[in-house]
Amino acid sequence: MADASVIEVPVKAIGIRRKARHSFVVIGNPNSGKSTLFNRLTGLRQTTGNYPGVTVEKHVGIMQTEIGAMELIDLPGIYCLGGQSLDERIAVDVILGRLDDVARPSGMLFVLDATHLYQGLYLLEQLLEMQVPTVVALTMTDLARARGITIDIDALQARLPGITVREVVSTRRQGIEALKQELQDLHERAAPDFPASWPALSHTAQELADRTSGELTRMDVIQSLLHPSSDAEARANALLNAGELKSAREELFGTEPPQAVEARQRYRWVRGVLGEVLNEAPLLGQVGARLGNWLNRPWPATVAFFALMALVFQAVFSWATPMMDAIDAGASDLGLWVSAAAGDGMLGSFLSDGLIAGVGSVIVFLPQILILFLFIIVLEDSGYLARAAFLMDRVMRTVGLSGQSVIPMLSSFACAVPAIMATRVIPDRRDRIATILAAPFMTCSARLPIYALLIAAFVPAGSLGWFNLQGIVLFGLYLLGIFGGLVTARLLKLTALRGPKPVFVLALPEFRKPDLVTVLLKLWDRVRVFLKRAGTVIFAVAVVVWVLAYFPRAEVVTDPPGPSVTSMQGPAGDTPQQQAEAMQLSQSWLGRMGRWVEPVFEPLGWDWRVSSAVIAGFPAREVVVAVLGTLYAVGSDTDEETLAGRLRSATWPDGRPVFTLPMVLGLLVFYAWCLQCAATLATIRRETNSWRWPIFAWFYMTTLGYVAALLIYQIGSRL
Amino acid sequence: MTLAELKPGQSARILSIDTGVPGVIRLMVLGLIEDAIVRIENAAIGGDPIEISLFGTSVSVRRQHARHFLIEPVTAHG
C-alpha cells in the first residue's frame, strides 16, 4: 500500500505538469466572455507562450476534473474562418492538430455570447465542418435577460444536434461545474453531424475529401473551395482530378465570390434559428444603454476620448507618487544600511552603488507601469479600444491608414511588442508594416522611467489651473511620440508602402464591465515580465556597469582629470574624498569608454555619463535609469540621496551644470524617438519576416532622435 | 437608395448587395446580408464611418462601402 502511494504521487504530478490526459480548444467571438470563462475553468494554472514558428500567443491552462487534469487551449477571438488572417489560420491548424508540439485536441468548447447569437452561430457553423466533438457554453444570458431577450435553450439545442449547450454565468460561477462534467467525457463522444446551415457545401466537400483517402479533411476541401488561388487550393488540386474543384465551385457559387455566397447561406440559416430561439423578435437599437447612446454621438464621444486619454496620463503621474516615494525612500534606506553594514570596501560599494542603486532605480517605476497597464487592459476588456478605432478612423485616414491601426497604437503605450503582434488583425500587408513601424514611436512603459526621472528632477511641481505641470510635460512627450509615429506612417504610405486605401470593417462590441479576475491576471502577467527583466537584464547591466566604474582602482592619483570629465561638485568646495572619487570614476574603464564616445554626443550637451547610459540602453531602454543610478552613485555626494538630486547637482569640470533645460529637452526628445529595444526589433523581424524593416526602423529612429536632440540643444543653448 | 443615405436612428432592409468590392464581402461575413434589417446607430465626426447595428450586434462601416448596399427604409421594429 505504501509503495502504491509513493508511485502515485509522481505520476499525478507528471499528469498535471507534462501531459494532460486530453486537451480542448476554447474558441469564440472576441468579447464573448471567453477569457473570463477560461479563467474560471483553469484558475491560476496558465502559461502563455508562442506557437512554434508564429507569433500568435499560445495560451494554455490546466483544468482539474474528477478524472484528472485536462488541458485547455485558449484561441484568439475571431468572427469567421474566411478572412485568412493569421489568427484564423492558427485556429484551424490547432483544431486539426497540424502544429508541431500541439497535439490534436480531443474536443472544442465553443463560447456563444447570448447577446450576439447572430455572429456566434455563424462561426460555430463554420467550425463544425472540422468534425470535432463540441460543447457550447452559452454566456451572457444574464445580460440578455436584462435587455428583455430570453433564449429558449431547448429550441437552440434542437437546432444543434450532437452538441450539448450549457448555460454559464461565469461572473457568478453558475454552470461551471456542469460544463466541466460535459468536457470530462467529451473526447468519447462522436463529432457532430454535418452542420445544417449549408448542406450542399458540406456534402460536396465531404465527397471530394473521401476521394483523397484521408489526405484531406472536409475542412481542407471547404477552405480550398472558398479561397481560390490559396495554398489550400494548390494542395487540394494536387490530390484531386483536374477540374473537380472548379466544377464544384461553379455549382456552389455560380459567378459570385465564394465568401459572399457562404455568408448569405449560413446567415440565412442563423436567422431562421434566431426566429425560433429568441422569444421575441430581436429588438433593434439594443446597442448600449441610453447613456451609451448619447456618449456615442460624434462630438461627445470624441471629447470623451481625449478626456479619457488625458486622465490616464494624469493618473500615471499623480496616483503613483506616494507609492514611488515609499519605494525610493526604502531603497535609499536599504542602501545606507547596507553600506553601513558592509563597510566602505568593494562589497559595500557593489551592494549599495551597484545593485540597490541600479535595480532599485527601475523598480521605483513599477507603480506607474502598473497604473498604465491597468488602464490599457480595462480599456481593452471593456470594448473601448474598438470604439476608439471607430472614432479615430477619419484621423488615421489622413495618414493613409485606417481605424484598425488605432488599437495596436494605443496598446503600444504599454509595450510595442504586444502592439506589433496586434497588428495582425490588419489585413493589408502595407498598412500592417506602416503600423508596425509607427508603433515603436508611441511612448511605451519602458520610456516612462526616464521621462519620470527627468521630469521630476527638472520640471517644477506646480500646477497650471486644473492640471499638474509635470503631467502636462509628460502628455506633451506622448503627443511627440504620436506625432513621430503618424508622420512616419504617412511618409511610408507615400513612398515604399504606397498602395490602395485600406478597407475598414470592424465589429464594435458594446461597453461591458471587465471581469476583475481576468484584468488582474493580465496585469500580473505584465508585471511578471517587468520584474523578470529587472531581475535579469537590468540586474546584469547594473553589475557590469558597476564593475566598469569600479575597476581598475586608482592607487595613487597622478593625472588630473581630463578636460571633459565631469565631477559631482563644482571645483570649489570639493572635499579631497570627493575629488578622489571623481578621479577614480574618470580613470575607470567606464570613464575611458565614455570619454572615447563623448565627441559623438558632446554636441548634444551630454557628458560621458549620460552618453554611457544611453549606449547601455540600446538593448533595453529601461536600463538607462539603472545605469545613471549606478554611475551617479559611485563617487556620489552623500548630501543628495535621490538620483534626481544627484542629476541636478552634476556639473562640467568648469562648474556649468550638465543638465540644462536645452540638454534635458533634447535628451527627452531623443528618448521619445530613438528605438532602444532589442525585443521590439526581434518582433519586427518575426512579424515582417525580413531583416530589412527592423534595420530600417533602427537607423531611421536613431538618426531622427539624434538630429532632433542636436538641434534642440544647439538652438536652445544660443537663445 | 443606399445604406450611405440613411441617418442615425433610421432602420432599413437590405435589398441587394454589390459583391464586387472586397470591403463589402467582409461586411457580409459580419452578417450584413440581403433581407437583414439594420439600423444606423451613430457616426464618427464628419459622419464617417457609421455604426450599423443588426441583431444586437454593431459594425463600423465606411460610407464608401455603405454605398454598395441597396436598401429600403422600414419603420423601427419592422
Automatic annotation (TrEMBL), chain A:
GO terms for cellular component: plasma membrane. Keywords: Cell membrane, GTP-binding, Ion transport, Iron, Iron transport, Magnesium, Membrane, Metal-binding, Nucleotide-binding, Transmembrane, Transmembrane helix, Transport. Mg(2+) binds at N39, T42, G43. Residues 21-189 form the FeoB-type G domain. InterPro entries: Fe2_transport_prot-B, Fe2_transport_prot_B_C, FeoB_GTPase, G_FEOB_dom, Gate_dom, GTP-bd, P-loop_NTPase. Pfam families: FeoB_C (PF07664), FeoB_N (PF02421), Gate (PF07670). It comes from the Bacteria. The chain crosses the membrane at residues 299-320, 355-379, 399-421, 433-459, 471-492, 530-551, 659-684, 696-716. It is a multi-pass membrane protein. GTP binds at residues 28-35, 53-57, 74-77, 169-171. CDD domains: FeoB (cd01879). It is found in: Cell inner membrane; Cell membrane. One of its GO terms (molecular function) is GTP binding. Probable transporter of a GTP-driven Fe(2+) uptake system. Belongs to the TRAFAC class TrmE-Era-EngA-EngB-Septin-like GTPase superfamily. FeoB GTPase (TC 9.A.8) family. This is Ferrous iron transport protein B. It comes from Elongatibacter sediminis. The gene is feoB.
UniProtKB/TrEMBL annotation, chain B:
Residues 1-73 form the Ferrous iron transporter FeoA-like domain. The keyword Iron applies. Keywords: Iron. One of its GO terms (molecular function) is transition metal ion binding. The keyword Phosphoprotein does not apply. Pfam families: FeoA (PF04023). InterPro entries: Fe-transptr_FeoA-like, FeoA, FeoA_core_dom, Transcriptional_repressor_C. PANTHER family: FE(2+) TRANSPORT PROTEIN A. This is FeoA family protein. It comes from Elongatibacter sediminis.
